[in-house]
Input
Amino acid sequence: MRPFHTIIEPFRIKSVEAVKFTTRAERAAALEAARHNVFLLKGDDVLIDLLTDSGTGAMSSAQWGALMQGDETYAGSRSFYRFEQAVRDLTGFAHIIPTHQGRAAERILFHTVVKPGDVVPNNNHFDTTRANIEVEDAEARDLVVAEGRQPSLVRPFKGNIDVDALDQLLARDGASVPLVMVTVTNNSGGGQPVSLANLRAVRAICDRYRKPFFLDACRFAENAWFIKQREDGQHDRSPRDIAREMFRLADGCTMSAKKDGLANIGGFLAMNSDEWAEKCRTLLILTEGFPTYGGLAGYDLEAIARGLEEVVEEPYLKYRIRSTEYLGEKVAAAGVPIIQPPGGHAIYIDARAMLPHVAPLEYPGIALVNALYVEAGVRGVEIGSVMFGLQPDGSEKAAAMDLVRLAIPRRVYTQSHIDYVAEAVIAVAERRDAIRGYRIRSAPRVLRHFTAEFEPL
Ligand SMILES: Cc1ncc(COP(=O)(O)O)c(C=O)c1O
Output
């Protein structure tokens, strides 16, 4: 029998949502009205929305069915116990604390365990993780391996944390490190995976210095798939089995269920420490809700419980990772510089390399995002000097990289949508010399990329 090479979407479509087509002039006007910040556009003015893969996925019919099972009892809801069981089976953690999304889990954790002057190491902190540490007057320190900072270098696990640097930090300043984090996959570093070997090494270091080890687990299933594909000795294991080992190497996790929970909202904080869990639950009640719903409806808890099962299915992960890789291959073949190899949930275009005539503090990432929107109605997001350039003292510094992330929502777009996106990126690349930078007209001091207003130069 001849094997088939086409990797098809492992679902058929039961319900559709129309997208709106606009003219180039309409898009230029919409961007102007949005002060040249695509976060301020109306969603209806976007044709293909690759702003984020967070909460934008399509739920399965089984998840929609599960919604009807939602038990909205305030305390002790049946849906909570189902959710708790699903999370515990996967992670093995003793305490499962639901939150309305990932950053709520981060805020509760860091507010509970981080003091002013502390340092929290991570491979790369995501923006909300960093902000929730800095707001406690602590430092969020990125210790990704050197190869993770070289966009064009092809290596299997560019999300790994530099274990020597971690060891040195703990040897020198261990007293000011309340916990060690690793983000899987490494979103801010190109959606690159972390190997099991690296997680095991972090575990050993944390044991040596008696430090808790937490995963930022938003994309744990995609990370598990990469481990299965790329790490010696892992090919015959199921993604679920690998994911279970990843969690069992850690003492806790923060999780946004809007990614690999395959849900539109939700998250959780989970851990083994009784002492920390008690403190976190107290804060949860103050700001999120009672510990058996944590800011979520019973039906959300049902959707997440089911999503956590579907996300580790092999046909899903195979299609998911391949569709991202497919977009990466197409644009790279046309000479567009991207972070190599393609990440799990997104393609990251190296805007600094693509637009060398735009200085980092003229925001090449914003320039490229805006050009892509006007060209084709495709919305991406800058991950660069606007997102990370503002220093805690108010000064500005170019970020390590200026990237444009095209994040692919889960189970939403078909191959022809992806073909269209590739065509749009290539069209923009062909007229790159005409693209100009921006200046910031106004911006808040924290998480400025969401609401900053820009002016073209
Ligand atoms: C790695 C990582 N951590 C944390 C978060 C925050 O999760 P949420 O958006 O649910 O607050 C995100 C969201 O994109 C993320 O990618």
Summary: The mean pLDDT is 96. The radius of gyration is 21 Å. Residues 116 and 137 are 5 Å apart (CA to CA).
